[in-house]
Amino acid sequence: MVSRYRVEYQLKSHRKDELIEWIKGLLAVPFVLHSASDNEDNRQLLRQRYAEIFKAVEDLVGEQVEVREQVPPEDFLFHRQRTRLAQLVPSVGAFFTRLPLEQAFALEDSKRAISARVMVAPSFNDIRHILNSAQILQMRQYHDVKLVTFDGDVTLYEDGGSLTPHCKVVPYLLDLLRQGIYVGIVTAAGYDEAQKYMERLFGFMHALEADDSISDAFKENVAVLGGESNYLFRYDASQKKLVAIPTEKWIRSPMREWSESDMTETLDLAESLLRDFRTNLNLPEESTIIRKPRAVGIVPGNRWNPETKRTIRVKMEREQLEEMVLTLQHRIENFAPARRIQFSCFDGGSDVWCDIGGKDLGVAVLQHYFSPSNPIKPSQTLHIGDQFAPMGSANDFKARLSGSTLWISSPQETVEVLRCLTEGFDHYKLPPHKSS
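The line above is the sequence of IMP-specific 5'-nucleotidase 1; the predicted structure tokens follow.
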């Protein structure tokens, strides 16, 4: 009998990444043909076949990058659809750099023993890690990273948590600054005052203030873009805190052209739908709808438990969250005022939000704000986040439009990818790489 989890996963196309699923399919063939017996010859053959597949995908990505480099930006979308990779995976996005996937596979295989498995085929997570490693290898090789941006929850800290002084990611953030790399936090948390972000990031803020090895100029390479793309704050070394940057100093097209009425009407519709959900989906009566200037959402409430004599959080079911975010997306994208602006619908694992703007705009804002005369290129930008599914719980997905990305699943993974980005892969104990 097939498990309930497996049945539900196959039905949830909105939670799948088609490129990763396509690569999984390619790897399934050699797994079936060459993993029947557990001996060294078969493992060597299987490793070779996997490497050949990743080299082929690497070449397909390279073809698309060559097209980007050869045609005017306004013509790229048309020409991208004619590349072999786009024909094989129609939903695949743009790539801003080449990806050494064969070498990345060798790295991850040395760590995860992918080719040594005879019962479990290469998984979604295996391929995600390989894609991440390939992106890091490419950027380390060319020493061309100028901006690294991060999601907040589940990326820098646990969901609903904060950056404490003991968080292992803090030293790596400081190391990026020492190298002259801009650090941006592009988060859905929509506060219009700096103090709220100072509280969420207090461990990083204290470490930044106390570190004498980083110049004041480099310390001011830290910025927070809140509410997806609505509020900009930059670290001021003289005041030792984040300060708000007036909107007129950083806002750019297309956000500059959006009308207040269109944004208000879009949020009005979203709020109305959320109120209907509370009744139609039998949500806990403690769930609360929160309206902000540039966002509206529904969050779980709290309930007193007389048995434990404690206040507990009343959770909404995963199915309820997914129903809400997918319905919001579908209804709002067909709403005339919403089509004249940009919005993001997503669930954060325990709540659902509709925000004005998107992380692609937030990352682009930082690319231009930090370097107005010569904006940082997407190929020089790396966004790290946990929500890259094509639809629904995916507000990091749009960041792919503005830069290269790393898809992580926890703050611990963020620490690991930053370690590889700043220090390399020596700790993987990899044998010398031999290109095929």
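Note on the example: Confidence is low (pLDDT under 50) at residues 1-14, 432-436. The chain has 16 helices and 13 strands.
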